[in-house]
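Write out the bound-state structure for zinc ion.
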Amino acid sequence: MPIADSLDQIDHIDFKRAEAEIFLNPEKKKVSGEITYNFDMLKSIDSFYVDARNINFEEVLLNGASKDFRNSGARIWITNQLQASDNNSLKLKFSVKPKDALYFINWDIADSLNAPKQIWTQGQGRYTSSWLPSFDDQREKIEFDISYYFPKELEVMANGRLTGTAIKDSVKEWNFQMESPMSSYLLAFAAANYAVQESESASGVSLQYYMPVWDKAKMEPTYRHTRKIFNFLEGEIGVAYPWENYKQAPVRDFLYSGMENTSATIFDHAFITDSIAYKDRNYVSVNAHEMAHQWFGNFVTAETQNDHWLHEGFATFYALLAEREIFGEEYYYWKLYQWAEQLKEMSDSGKGEPVTRAGASSLTYYQKGAWALHMLREKVGRDAFNKAVKNYLELYKYKTATTDNFIAEVEATANIDLSDFMSKWLNQTAFQGFAALNSLKKSEFIQKHLNMLALRETPLDKKSELLSAALNFPVSDYTGQEVVYQLKGETSDLAINLYKKAFATNNIYVRQAIASSMEQIPPELKNEFESLLNDKSYLTKELALLKLWMNFPQQVTQYLDQTKGVVGFTNKNVRMLWLTLNLVTPNYQPQKKQQTYNELSGYTAKYYPIEVRENAFGYLYQINSFSTQNLLDLMQGTQHPASRFRNYSRELLAELLKREEYRQKFLALKDRLSQKEWDYLQSKIN
Ligand SMILES: [Zn+2]
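---
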């Protein structure tokens, strides 16, 4: 009897090592090559499989002999009576045009446009078996040694240690070797026109930073604190970093914020920051999160879907501990406080989930999981907690573990019964809001902040002294912002004076709160508000430009001139607002209107990063000025692999299709749409 899909092959075979040669053909969007698995047969068996989604096989060799096989389209099955035996080999020659999990970016764009060409992978939530015969079951851990063949102009980051390269004609070979086994979903590479820098952790681990060559100046602010985070995690976790080195690379249009591929984290282009962008949206948190996964998830992997919080809860909690080292105690408690608010809201609306539920939401796995660990650490103390985590990692290293396995280590180390803790924090749908609040109140900052929040309904003249005192040096980023929010809509002399004091704190986040919350700018605050345009924050600049443009129409020329060179975040937030305001200000640069429109309209093109495209679509919608090309680009967006952009495009399309003029315009695109795009449009119109 062949093994049924539901039966665990893992009890019969142990795949140990893989050696592969993989050729990337970006022009044809094709992957081909061969992979040889070395395995032990634990029990006799008459057939076995390797996961392979829509992969074609040319040849299958079992222990050197050619074998018949069955390709189900999801798996390749090899039928053969094998007795328990060590060191068997299975060699698969394959080729595939991956539908998922491996993405060719900008290879179909004309060279003259200079669009950066990239190739990258995403295994988790997708399947590595969409481009390489491998194992979807994360309990199957394999040591991979892979030689990749790429167009020679690309720099390649992949799992493990780079042991050699060679160039032959237009192709460059990259040999990567690993020393320890991991689950197939962690297999990855990113190939692009990268510059690479290297540093070393305190323990001597090589830390490698990849950055598109034209963004090289953003290397430092993007990767700021990486070494500090690494050293902190290694020290706090107490287990030496378990892989050869640690590399990170940003890619365009990534499906998530970041992915912790073993020793080769990939993160989204939008986290590339200069020193100004760093203040509002830096990579620190995602950086620390993915790094923590190298232990929690990659080194010790969850046994079942119910144990997924052992990845995300731990990565989120350890990232927060690392961030506390960088941003301080207030930041730590502020994050916990915000998460508690979100979790309480979810719980109060009856949508709470246990962290041990398979298929739970991100909020549950990440933030509720992190809260559980915060409470557990508080309960047993840092020493016992750290000792238990260390024991847990050492006991299950390069293997899988369950929630019970982890809890058993804590119970043993702290000599405590955790059944009550488990039922409240791990297995209950409701969030323990009261216990969380009591824990938060151990922070003096949180106590003060809660006192400030309690003043929300108090009339200004009864609380002005308290608000004023909260703006004294050194002002808290968070409480200072709360003071500003409580002034919203107030125009009395008392309020103006408090606003002036808030401006004068020179705290970038307090000033940003004014930029975001003030709609009508009182004349007495005009000068101060104008000074926001010079703040070193792209978010503040964007908000201030918009509000000034709305409040003081007679001075728009001055404001536009002052901000015309500013681009902003990777989504060009300031530039895109500037272009839009330019277009709706008739007497500003009247002779350049076409050029200005062309720039804004051009940003929806499919070779721009998705955060740029989304921003451009948003502004074009506001000024109701879509070109035919914009509509084509939008249709392309409705089929995009990155769900956040695909959903955005679909919502915008739905909005536009409410109007007859747009229905006609979209229908007229028929000959220029792909079959998938056309089918999707049809389904929305009918
Ligand atoms: Zn994660």
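---
Confidence is low (pLDDT under 50) at residues 1-6.
Residues 194-293 form a domain with the Neutral Protease; domain 2 fold (CATH 1.10.390.10).
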